[in-house]
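User: structure tokens for this one?
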Amino acid sequence: MRVDEFLQARSLAPKSQTAYRQDLQRFLNWTDKGWAEVTPRHVTQFKAHLMRQDLETGRRSLSDATVRRILGPLKNFYGWLVRSRYVSINPTTEVDLPKLTEPEAQNLKDGEVEQIVQAAASSSLAERNMALILVLLHGLRAEEVSVLNIEDYDGRRLRIREAKADSKGWVPLTLQGKEAVERYLQWRELTGEVLSPERPLFVSHSRRNLWQRLGYDGIRKVMDTISKQAGIDFHAHQFRHTFATNLVLKGMNPYHVMTLTRHKSVQNFRRYTKAADQQAAEQAFDQVMGSSQAIDSNQDAVALSTQVSQHERLLLQKYLTK
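Assistant:
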């Protein structure tokens, strides 16, 4: 009852509500205590239970990220219980969440993208697969692509109506992206499909699911097939990483890149700016150290010149002025 009331009080997407229920249920399955009976010691023991090692393999049963994801909802839930005066203390306050290392962008290299595009172009459904790859290369998540309709393409941009964390918005397409989408839609018309605005932008072309929406699992299977053809192990979300990283490296304002990727958190977006920061730092280092190394070399040469003959000094000075 308390969990139901807690979820009703929060504005969570259906998937987030399901995840909260699962994580809170995991705690209930572990303990026989009522919510008001739980102490900080119990929460600490639960954390240790989540972070335990498998006796056979010696490896952690759950990663730090998973432990953090499970304990986070428990902390939020107890905070709500205290504010709602169902319990007097929050037993999770003194239990820290595992610290996570800053994630790295999993962007693909230009040569890898070229190989993947070539594999898509030579696949059995080249028109569909080329359009799919190029749309993903504009930073869309696979689940966002799966729910796109034809009406969401206005000839220049794609409208994201359903997205993670309500990150809706518009994404402009490059010339190559627009051409690929339009070529795919024309091909569908030539195969006999009647197109209408509410039809899915990407559909299955298998005998079993012909003309039906290409769902998330369908996109994953297409990526697996192209991965084997290209000889590159990749997943669809890496195109999003590639899109964001490349825009930042090319000098685009990170705020504008965040607008296109529809990130809500600067911390989550930070992974894409790290590569650009590293590149800029190395360039600045070369500029500074290049000048200082030249000065050091000249100073060393002058010191050396005091130890050689007048004739050698003149030759050395002549060399340094070239």
